[in-house]
Amino acid sequence: MTARRIDPRTIGxxxxxxAFALTAxxxxxxxxxxxxxxxxxxxxxxxxxxxxxxxxxxxxxxxPFVILPLAGVSDAEKTASTYYSPILFLLxxxxxxxxxxxxxxxxxxxxxxxxxxxxxxxxxxxLLVAFMLSTALLSMFISxxxxxxxxxxxALAVLEGGSSGGDAEGVQQDGIHGALPMGIAFAASIGGLGxxxxxxxxxxxxxxxxxxxxxxxxxxxxxxxxIPLVLLSVPLAAYIVARVQRxxxxxFDVAAAxxxxxxxxxxxxxxxxxxPIAFVTFIAWVTQPLVAAALxxxxxxxxxIAVIAALALFLLPDGTGRPLLVWQEAERAPWSxxxxxxxxxxxxxxxxxxxxxxxxGAALLPLEAWPLLLVALAVTVLVIVITxxxxxxxxxxxxxxxxxxxxxxxGVDPILLALPAALAASWGFMxxxxxxxxxxxxxxxxxxxxxxxxxxxLLDVAGAVLIVAVVWTIAALT
Length: 478
Hints:
Layout: H1 8-25, H2 34-52, H3 57-60, H4 63-70, H5 76-82, H6 86-104, H7 106-118, H8 124-139, H9 144-161, H10 176-191, H11 200-212, H12 219-244, H13 254-261, H14 269-286, H15 288-292, H16 302-315, H17 327-330, H18 335-354, H19 356-362, H20 372-387, H21 392-410, H22 414-424, H23 436-442, H24 449-477
């Protein structure tokens, strides 16, 4: 008799609430406030539901609004406000831009350039690497989320061009069909580590280190460590994604994709009118730190730029008697993904407000008795685990000050201990709600949650060792 297979979603539905119930019925660890203990249970609950898809991901995102007020962490009004972040407008505005690019067909021309670089004899693995390297390079200069928004329509155009048919649900998820969106998401996060301006987390970490430990890290010095890490990490991530997705076992006709995209048609008027908007938006994202310094604080953000570009799409005619984008097309934006990401922001705020993040940071202090290399590795691992469930910015803000205090207590070079922690704050790949790029990739419908969790976990483990190895090796050589 064949044993009945238990649906992972059923397991998640049970384990999530059970984890929270245990924290509600048991005393918190020493030094932890009861509210922080409840938020720890909420974190486990949401992780279980997100990883098993026990309920739709956006539904899981509603939990903080219920639990945080009941746990006494914050009232309903304040909790609702934590679902908001300027990055949500970046996601929304960027989605509108991506929809306009898709509607005009401009993404096919951009994808064709990458296919030409892959070559006529290039296979799906080479295609994956080419897209990931392009994404990582772009992400060094503009935000990770903006990069993913630019690259994803190109990837989808390639997949559609080389597709021979869908699965039962109409969208293929095996082989390169799931690997390419996932690889772009991972490469966008990895590329952001290359320079200080690649991710807001980097700048926050540098500022905190300068203030708390007197360890000023310059743009050039960060890049000295960040760029080699990116160059090593992208091929590693491509290898992991390709193995998890079994890309080699699912043939993909790159030549057919190129032929399907390359229509040899002349540029249309809508394409010609969209290019300047996309170009100006790109330049605005690249120069955002410089322009922001001349304006009121917080007035000029990546989200502001994306919304201005989106407004232009609704206002400017495309030359055929209609705007570049109409609302019926804009309604296809990934609204559920935006709400899901908001749930992650709310959870991160709860971790901070309840004292859970501070308690976790204080737990690091006994590590000062360990050998410094093990301390660096332990701190890196812990930061990676935390950033899977909290926003990168929240992780950097909560953990880097504690690491800075360790640096002062041990009297060591901040590079050896604090820089790995700062880099690790952006090293989260397992969950769709973990980063903006992950959420964008998930919105394509081409990724299985099990594949993302598996690939992300493997990359997390490898990354903890790689980050410390790169930082310590370069520090020893300089």
